[in-house]
Design goal:
homodimer; mainly alpha; 2 domains; DNA-binding
Chain lengths: ~220, ~220
DNA sequence: GTCTATATACTGATAGAC
DNA sequence: GTCTATCAGTATATAGAC
């Protein structure tokens, strides 16, 4: 016997509305009343389905992180098959961030919204969120770091970690403030354009990873 | 006649406490009662001195952004005197971020705390904060972009804006989550070490700025 | 499962004594 | 300038009718 494929459907409406609101305004700033109103649900129903506001957040993470990290894993495996180290490096970087940015990936509502949610909520330093994020993303991040190390054997692992961290920061910042790119460029670049953002960030990150190490390198 | 050099001193105690709490926990999560308790002030005094919670935030920005951007301006001018374009690029990148990270810069309490505050508060998408940030930092950011463009004349301005944006994101992310570097590296790198962060981020950013443009470049 | 009603606590802001 | 007391609003969470 299988579980019913679609739950009460109110449950998912609540998840959708909460995800949209959290990703736009952060976790603390959104009240459960707003979520109830946006989803057409009753305030009490949210507590019934998720127990608490933290429980709701955890449910959102659980809905997405599985499929997303599975996709990242697949793309990483594909990328690692590439022989040429330069091409492989670029493919790994793409595999690292594409499922975060892409609209079509992930189970519901697109990965971009969930990525924006993660970025915003992480910046809030919400304790529950930080715990979930660490549990869910550290293992796959370490796998990517290993893959990058294999492309760049001459680089100390610490340098790779730093640059991976900067890559995550660049993605996160772009998802939080896309309009800053548009404004700073006077409209020449479009921060909301996911394709453009992906191209730009991959090129910048690949160049950063190829930079020489700190302690070695020419004087 | 000069203004008295030190105000009631309670005013500054409140500013210090608020800055510390906001930078650690964000704006919305910190209540005025917490600030009152941490500063030893009375709840009513905060309203007396700053009018509102938003007024308190604005006072924090006003205390720091003047000196900080003046310092960035000075360092930029110095950097622009360097003849060699490669050395100049690196000096400009340092000038861009050093006053944000450095403990000794800024009037009170160090620039790092204020930078962490900006990063956290910006991620919260607080309306008042976004207005202040845009007013205060856009002009100087544009000056840096112009200086970078002069080092990299072959690069489209849009690419420079993107990479500057990524640089800001990397700095911001590091200030919000320094411990992630430490954890991901298994302790090999220290995310809290400002010197190390500065070195790493400058090297990565310089390499990113030197990457070829998107539309041109060799196939 | 969904609803109303409510318990309990906390929020920012203010009025007025001192 | 600092304090107490308090207002009006909102928060999460829950108990119980339907």
């Amino acid at each position: 016997m299988l579980m019913p494929q679609r739950q009460t459907s109110m449950r998912e409406a609540i998840l959708d509305a909460a995800e949209e609101l959290f990703s736009k305004n952060g976790f603390r700033a959104v009240s459960m009343r707003e979520i109830a109103q946006a989803s057409g649900a009753n305030l009490g129903s949210i507590s019934y389905h998720f127990g608490s506001k933290d429980g709701l957040l955890r449910a959102i993470y659980e809905r997405h992180s599985g499929p997303m990290n599975r996709r990242r894993s697949e793309l990483l495996t594909e990328a690692q098959r590439i022989r040429d180290p330069d091409d492989r490096l670029e493919a790994i970087v793409r595999a690292f961030i594409l499922p975060s940015l892409s609209q079509s990936e992930g189970s519901v509502g697109g990965g971009a919204r969930f990525a924006r949610l993660r970025a915003v909520v992480m910046a809030e330093r919400h304790e529950e969120a930080q715990k979930i994020i660490a549990e869910t993303f550290n293992p796959i991040n370490l796998a990517f770091i290993d893959a990058l190390q294999a492309c760049l054997p001459q680089l100390p692992r610490a340098d790779i970690v730093w640059r991976t961290h900067f890559l995550l920061g660049a993605v996160s910042y772009t998802l939080i403030n896309p309009w800053r790119v548009t404004r700073l460029s006077g409209g020449e670049a479009d921060g909301e354009n996911t394709e453009e953002a992906l191209t730009q960030i991959v090129r910048a990150a690949v160049a950063a990873f190829r930079a020489p190490a700190g302690s070695d390198a020419a004087p």
